[in-house]
């Protein structure tokens, strides 16, 4: 990284993206090595399936865009300014995709699968979703009890959502596309992304809250909106129902 910085002078944002790309390559290589030498199987979840990947990304966008659009229509989100898209959004999009992929490797490909193999799909679903939510506590470290509780419920449901996508597809790239598209859609809407305000100035929409926190999501953003939580809950029920009908649930390993 120091050599790249010295020779190419890419700037802090691109240097950060290059660093994250290196981490991603190392993580994927490490995961492949784990499945190949420890589990002694082909890492089928690393196969790139273009059509499913596109559908995964599109569904992630639609799932969060619809409740956000409803919040604008109800006046709980107000458009302050529409500005042209910043070229820096490309770099942010890459960072979001890398971060989403790394999270899916950790929480769905590793934690969820290991727990599922040992304890069955239901236990794995519950444990990984709660762990996923607890990790996000630092994003609302200055929030009150209500905000923290709402965030934990919200992110637990998101953990179930992305685990549901993984159960149905058994593919890293599909669930990562869904996750990344979800995050990027929130960013483009000009509201906080999982409590992060850093990129709001780059969004093509400058948005302000005009409704109560239980609808807007407050400091954590739309993911803590009751409307989004209900939408995700419905999606989880449908996904898990389809997965069960297709026999995608596994039982506890007999020891």
Describe the structure.
This protein is mainly alpha-helical and 255 residues long. The chain has one domain. Helices cover 67% and strands 4% of the residues. It has helices spanning 2-8, 12-38, 50-74, 88-119, 121-135, 145-169, 172-188, 213-216, 226-245, and strands spanning 77-82, 205-209. Strands 1-2 form a two-stranded antiparallel sheet. Helix 3 runs parallel beside helix 7, helix 4 runs antiparallel to helix 5 (121-135) and helix 5 (121-135) packs across helix 6 (145-169). The longest helix is centred in the middle third of the chain and has 32 residues, at 88-119. The radius of gyration is 19 Å and the shape is globular. The relative contact order is 0.16.
What labels would you give this structure?
67% helix, globular
The profile of the biggest β sheet is: 2 strands, antiparallel
Q: Give the helix tally.
A: 9
* DSSP, total strands: 2
Main-sheet strand order equals 1-2
Task: Characterize this entry briefly.
The chain is mostly helical and 255 residues long. It has helices at 2-8, 12-38, 50-74, 88-119, 121-135, 145-169, 172-188, 213-216, 226-245, and strands at residues 77-82, 205-209.
């Amino acid at each position: 990284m120091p050599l790249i910085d010295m020779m190419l002078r890419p700037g802090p944002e691109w240097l950060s993206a290059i660093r994250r790309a290196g981490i991603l390559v190392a993580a994927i290589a490490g995961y492949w090595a784990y499945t190949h030498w420890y589990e002694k199987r082909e890492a089928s979840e690393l196969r790139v399936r273009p059509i499913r990947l596109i559908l995964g990304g599109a569904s992630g966008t639609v799932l969060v865009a619809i409740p956000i659009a409803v919040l604008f229509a109800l006046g709980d989100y107000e458009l302050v300014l529409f500005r042209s898209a910043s070229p820096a959004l490309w770099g942010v999009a890459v960072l979001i995709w890398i971060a989403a992929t790394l999270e899916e490797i950790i929480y769905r490909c590793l934690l969820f699968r290991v727990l599922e193999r040992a304890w069955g799909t239901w236990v794995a679903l519950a444990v990984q979703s709660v762990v996923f939510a607890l990790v996000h506590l630092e994003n609302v470290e200055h929030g009150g009890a209500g905000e923290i509780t709402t965030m934990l419920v919200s992110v637990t449901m998101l953990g179930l959502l992305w685990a549901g996508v993984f159960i149905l597809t058994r593919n890293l790239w599909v669930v990562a596309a869904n996750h990344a598209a979800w995050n990027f859609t929130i960013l483009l809407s000009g509201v906080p992304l999982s409590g992060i305000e850093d990129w709001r100035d780059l969004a093509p929409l400058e948005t302000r809250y005009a409704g109560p926190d239980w609808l807007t999501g407050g400091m954590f953003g739309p993911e803590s909106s009751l409307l989004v939580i209900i939408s995700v809950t419905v999606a989880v029920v449908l996904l898990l129902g389809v997965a069960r009908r297709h026999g995608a649930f596994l039982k506890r390993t007999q020891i």
